[in-house]
């Protein structure tokens, strides 16, 4: 896993547009807001903490998939899975506390940037929850997910999602719109593949236990991809459209 580059003190905004990020600036793009995050010390600290959330959930996802595929023993990662999940939750609470404290002293100037952070940290926390669900799936079902005809498509989907983590972190941290669009396209393709696989499982003549385990696995992989999609989408959308990126895709998947 790539280490996140630190946000340096001497980094400056790429082009902060004060009018665009005012309280009335509903067409604000995240690129300008992230320039603010990188430039201002309190916001920069929050951004660094958010990148830690992505790094930790990436580890959780990788470890959980390896346990599911029987390439890593459960007891080797169980303690750290739950430890990192708690750390991710604490990061979310910490960022929220810092936002409230920051806005107490800066009641107007940084509201849009703080709204963006509030939104994406929620997505990162949900990614952690689903990674924990993936691990618990391995402990709940004594199903050999390391073999059978569904091994290859499920493993391929997991690998595709794992490749999105570092890209999502970098796209958000450096407001890389081209990379964000690439992540969005890839995550939507993953979601379509998950839906297709679930439809196949519904019509397949599998034992109930296997069908449930495989369906949950596909569902959790899809939700991880969707939340990474939300984070990437925030790079290329306006503040008022945050959290709505996948509503039109699947209204039954909203949380």
TrEMBL record:
<feature type="domain" description="PhoU">
    <location>
        <begin position="155"/>
        <end position="234"/>
    </location>
</feature>
<dbReference type="InterPro" id="IPR038078">
    <property type="entry name" value="PhoU-like_sf"/>
</dbReference>
<comment type="similarity">
    <text>Belongs to the PhoU family.</text>
</comment>
<dbReference type="GO" id="GO:0030643">
    <property type="term" value="P:intracellular phosphate ion homeostasis"/>
</dbReference>
<dbReference type="GO" id="GO:0045936">
    <property type="term" value="P:negative regulation of phosphate metabolic process"/>
</dbReference>
<protein>
    <submittedName>
        <fullName>PhoU family transcriptional regulator</fullName>
    </submittedName>
</protein>
<dbReference type="InterPro" id="IPR028366">
    <property type="entry name" value="PhoU"/>
</dbReference>
<feature type="domain" description="PhoU">
    <location>
        <begin position="51"/>
        <end position="137"/>
    </location>
</feature>
<dbReference type="Pfam" id="PF01895">
    <property type="entry name" value="PhoU"/>
</dbReference>
<dbReference type="InterPro" id="IPR026022">
    <property type="entry name" value="PhoU_dom"/>
</dbReference>
